[in-house]
Amino acid sequence: MFHDFVNVSRNFRKSSYFIMSRIIAFLILFFNLQKNQNCVSASYRSSSTKQCALVLPPPAKLKQLLEDEMSGKRKSDMPILLPCCYDGLTARLVAQAGFEATFMTGFGVSGVNGYPDTQLVSYGEMQRAASYVAEGLASAALELQKKDGPVPCIADGDTGYGNAINVKRTLFGYGRAGMAGMMVEDQVSPKRCGHVSGKSIISFDDAVKRVQAACDARDEYESMYGEGTGPLILARTDALKTDGFNAAIDRCLAFREICGCDMTFLEAPTSIEEMEIYCKKVPGPKLANMLEYGSTPILPPAELKKIGYTMAAYPLTLLSASIKSMQESLCRIQKGESTEDLILPFDETKKIVGFDQYAKEENRYRND
Fold first, then answer.
1. Pick from 185, 315, 148: which is nearest to 263 by CA?
2. What does the pLDDT look like over 69-104, one tens digit per residue?
3. Contact at 8 Å (CB) between 257 and 58?
4. Whole-number Å distance between alpha carbons of 133 and 126
5. What is 59-323's CATH topology?
């Protein structure tokens, strides 16, 4: 009887030791995973820690930038400035100038292809432009040796190029192209620039469904490819021009509170008062559209931040400036006059488009 008791006790102790060892192993694994998760979280805050030198996916980088701006952690008297790009060259220029983020403008992509911004450019063409923009940002980041990776870019998704399912496909396409976010709007397709006449919008319920589809696609993308990979959603309304200011505010609130969009954009307010009321009534990150000679008052960045804007986009500045410069150059060529004061030295042009970096890489892999 005693020996049986001893054997039972030994077996119990062995079983207990086995169970305890499994528990300890599980706890070690758990804490290691937690440590790794903390490392990832820390990389949102800093890229200087060698043990946590992780480059965030573009959406995660944009999200962190927005959170830092909203919380006051980002130390600047200006909102996040978004000079808008539309191809690989303008993307490189924005990155080389040191901006924190950018926006791929549909007006610009349409314009450089010889079309007005009336949705004559297709989803496939916009996705291809997004790929060129992403490549331009990535190449500039490598040349500048940016430890935190490329500048994040929000891409213009227009109306989503069809129904709700098309909206989701557009989001996935932009995500695969390397975009950090996507703007989706409530105009009737084919849409047009928000500062020109002839706009019309879809119903409130349809607009909510469109933005909801974009937000669902963001979450589905992230569930497939990992945390921080789903492009953020910038929900835009053009209702102010067609249905009035209060209707536009209601849509922004619905996009934020019902759909769960990451950012809102009230297009074309016509007064500082409207801009102030929008910022007071609608929570979350907000975009100001600083279109020179458009419907919205052009305010200094510091004033936009005081009003409550998180971001300020400059949609046509680069495109318009380049058009003006090209027109002047063409005029001088036509007159037989010199253009040297209008252009860059050839060596600088070569450097901007990437020849210097190309030569370095060529020499790196030379086999002689």
1. 185
2. 999 999 999 999 999 999 999 999 999 999 999 999
3. no
4. 10
5. TIM Barrel (3.20.20)
